[in-house]
Amino acid sequence: MPQWLCNQLMRAFLQKDRRQIKLLNDCWYFYRTKQTPKKQSETFIP
User: Fold this and answer.
1) What sign results for the dihedral spanned by CA atoms 37, 40, 42, 46?
2) Running DSSP on this structure, what letter comes out for residue 16?
3) pLDDT tens digits, one per residue of 1-44
4) Which of 8, 14, 31, 33 pairs with 39 at a CA distance of 20 to 30 A?
5) Cα–Cα distance for residue pair 15/18, rounded to 1 Å
6) What pTM was computed for the model?
């Protein structure tokens, strides 16, 4: 997880900002799904 995302999530949890937590959570899953297929295709060499 990128450091900027960790920092923002920590801030949102400390402030108990549910809207921000949900938004950052969606960003994290979007980021992960974009990164995962790319890495898998790079590691698979027939």
Assistant:
1) negative
2) T
3) 889 889 999 999 999 999 999 999 998 898 888 876 555 555 55
4) 8
5) 9
6) 0.63
